[in-house]
Amino acid sequence: MSRRPESFSKPQIVPSPKPLPDLSFVIPAYNEAGNITKTVAQVDAHARRLVNSFEIIIVDDGSLDATFEESQALCAQYPLRVLRLSRNFGKEQAIMAGLERSVGAAVVILDADLQEPLSHLETMLEHRAEGYNMVYAVRAQRRDETWRKRLFTHAFYALLNIGSDTAIPANARDFRLMDRRVVDALCALPERNRFMKGLYGWVGFRTKAVAIELLPRATGASKFGFAGLFKLGLTGLTSFTAWPLRVWTGIGMFIAACSILYALWIAVRTLIFGIDVPGWSTLVVAVMLLGGVQLISIGVLGEYLSRVFTEVKGRPGFIIAEDFSADREHQ
Ligand code: UDP
Ligand code: MG
């Protein structure tokens, strides 16, 4: 059988590539079945008004409720893409999954619980037009939080910013508008222990803060209890500071100097007054204090080492189990 020469074969119709959207919305969602429909509707309404084209990416972070099914059902109606992670990887990783799959010229990260008023989008876009690469929301006040939480937050950011070259603003939210360049820079970072609020600052670029008042959560409860925040805080501290590792040299030197002075004092005292009652209580206190200080310093080493361990293992930060959208172009 003779083959037709190439020139006679039917011309291939290559579909022209879909133009990239102006804006991608990345929405991490963990057990947000009660909120997701309303959130998507609100995002859609605002985005239609503000930009020509947009995509919404919901990252279902291993939800146990119907978040994925609810989101899937919305795909017919909205320019929506739903990523389902294979399990709960945490908000930071869910955000990364969304950023990596987003294609818009700019990206907005948004919580799924409607706490962040979308009315600020317009201002954010205006600032972008003025030349800012990243426009982020900061909470105008934290009066609705307990004094304990405020104290911990304050202490955390103070510790985080000691000796760091990039100031990490307290009260900043993940709610922000970023240029593609900023998103690409964030996605290029290889680290797995991600503290996004630190990384946003680390990548640099021209940034602008916009003050917002947080609304109460639409339905459901916050996923970040004390334990969750503490864990995130430790990740933040270990990824952005080195002073807790170094401070022990200073503390060790101080304790050593004190013991030498104390030894001298004992020697002098013995020479003048002779041997008195054995100082067992001093001994016990000194041994316990030193034991405690040593355990703390080993614990701090352990925190850093455990992060080094996760980095060395090189496992991916998240696994995408399903990538769903109405046109299924991404499958
Ligand atoms: N979230 C997530 N994975 C988690 C925990 C939270 O994707 O493991 C999402 C959650 O669905 C919400 C956002 O992160 O869209 C913020 O969570 P939350 O409202 O619980 O935090 P808060 O507003 O109290 O800081
Ligand atoms: Mg919330």
From TrEMBL:
The chain crosses the membrane at residues 247-268, 280-305. GO terms for molecular function: glycosyltransferase activity. It is a multi-pass membrane protein. This is Glycosyltransferase family 2 protein. Residues 24-185 form the Glycosyltransferase 2-like domain. It comes from the Bacteria. It is found in: Membrane.
